[in-house]
Amino acid sequence: MGGSKTRLRLGPRWLYPAKALATRGRSAAFLARPGRKSGAPGVRILFYHRVTDERDELAVTPRAFAEQMAELAERGYRAVELGEVASVVRGDGAGDGVVGISFDDGYADVAEHAAPVLDAYGFTATVFVATGVTDGRVPLTWYREQPPLISWDEIRELDRSSPLRFEAHTVTHPNLLQLDDEAARREIGDCRVELADRLGREVDGFCYPAGLYGSRERRLVADAGYVWAATCEPGANGAHGDVFALRRIQVDARDSLVDFRAKLLGGHDRPLPLRRLYRRARFGQPTAAD
Questions:
Q1: Cα 173 to Cα 7: distance, rounded to the nearest angstrom
Q2: Rounded distance, CA 103 to CA 166, Å?
Q3: What pLDDT digit, counting tens, does each position of 131-167 carry?
Q4: Do 9 and 283 touch, CB atoms closer than 8 A?
Q5: Which of 29, 145, 216, 255 is the most buried (most CB within 10 A)?
Q6: Which run of H or of E encompasses 187?
């Protein structure tokens, strides 16, 4: 299996304003309920792609990101990389006041705009990189003109001496569900080997591209030697949950600070209506990935 079905693209243009409208309504309704000053149980992971003023549905502005991190600090949250969240899920640590932060794909603007803000608050975050995309073997297929990515030299330095820790995101960023077993195994396993060689350390974490996974992908990730993996399924992560299906909530370009608060506190733990059916039709994802 392969070809165009393996290439990931952005959704249709109408999707993003429609999603923003639904998000805004859900946020307002959630925060209007009594007792919503504190979060619902569980550790949430908030995930981003880009942090830039450029017009991109995958970007939040530097100003918005700074406001969001200030919101976490003011509420007493400690933002951490996802390896620490995985430890909480395994039952090896306390999750009170913890929120995970991650970035997909390794865009240069994350190092430029997000890392200094994280550092100022003593926060850490995970960045997932596709090794073949980072070194230029293949492009990200949803851009006509791909934004700059963090270089390997910068990745090595940032991984050692910044709030950012880098983990695996396959070699070419395909739709894993559309690959045969051997191709999927190579995408997952080769990425770990290549990234470990670049970083000079073991690579523990993996992120399914676009959050697309099923029981086969979960098994292949475990077989490759990873110890945890992240999805794009919304929700909170509780103790003794599945470390190979960590739930994450996307922070979108059109999110207001009210939306961010609602996502942080549990107002978006359930997917929006029709999300699973849409992803099944578009990508071939099972309606219940777990």
A1: 8
A2: 9
A3: 999 999 999 999 999 999 999 999 999 999 999 999 9
A4: no
A5: 255
A6: helix 181-199
Judge whether 97 and 74 are in contact, CB under 8 Å.
no
Any residues with CB less than 8 A from the CB of 43 and at least 6 apart, and which? Answer: 85, 88, 89, 95, 98, 99, 100, 236, 237, 238
Amino acid at 157: E
d(CA 143, CA 147): 8
Mean pLDDT of 211-238: 97
Q: How far apart are CA 67 and CA 47, in angstroms?
A: 15
Please provide the average confidence, as pLDDT, over all residues in the chain: 92
Q: What is the predicted pLDDT for the residue at 290? A: 40
Ordered by where they begin, the domains of the chain are 41-283 (3.20.20.370)
